[in-house]
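ok so I'm stuck.
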Amino acid sequence: MKILITGATGFIGNNVLKKIVVKYSPEKVIALSSQNIAGIKTIPSKGYDFDKNYLKENGCYDVEVLMHIGSFTPKSLAHVDNMEETTMNIVNTQNLLKSDLPFLKKIVFISTIDVYAHISEPLTELTDTNPSGLYGWSKLYCEQLVLKHCIKNHLDYEILRLGHVYGEGEEKYQKAMPIMIKRAIEGKNLNIYGDGEAIRSFIYIADVAKAIVTAIELDESEVINIVGDESVTINRLAEMIRSFASEKVDIIHIPTDVPNVDFIFDNTKLKKYLIDELTPLYVGLKREYDYMKERLT
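replied:
not stuck anymore, here's the structure
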């Protein structure tokens, strides 16, 4: 089996690539990337501006699995509605699906829980889709492109909607967890906007990568949420991070008018089909803390 993967240099893709190479060997993997990847056959992505024969003529003739991870992912809330970047998610996916891959059997598409409407109950794959930002809409549209393409061409598919992923490598994103970790390492107070009682459910990057790689050989075509089930408040998260710090740091609450929004997930399908045991939050958090501390010091 030969696998073509996009987005292999990003936070998610890099971790997935490492596991694919171990499971299938480097010779079975091809990366479509703007950067050359050592030890892996790499085809220049050319900004996805290529004709239908480009991949086939550059070593992808016998590819059986297309894993599309590469996309614009907002690094902060300020970029959720970036019109140009989110539109490119759609255009790039369209161009990729137009490619002639004669032996293609399956597409694994990496999406996001941002496609869902927000509800107070635990979020499942049956939750209504109604994105609040352009990023979520772009991924939902791409899901439909993949779905229709697979049905038309009799291909299997896996649509994997990623939740709140954490772990080594997420420090490039302006998210609460890496920001607090960095401040704790530097001996600075941990700032929380609001009362800190908003609930989050995180999933560790190694578990995410394992689930995605397992999806390659899943027999059923499915939509599956790749999400955690260990719910904690932001206050509890800050307390765990503070417990790792070598210096005393305080937790400071900054008043805000923004209401709390909880994210609680039901990951029954994830555990049924892809991975039956998840890394405890405290364990994964300590690994990320040690990783960032080593990089910073």
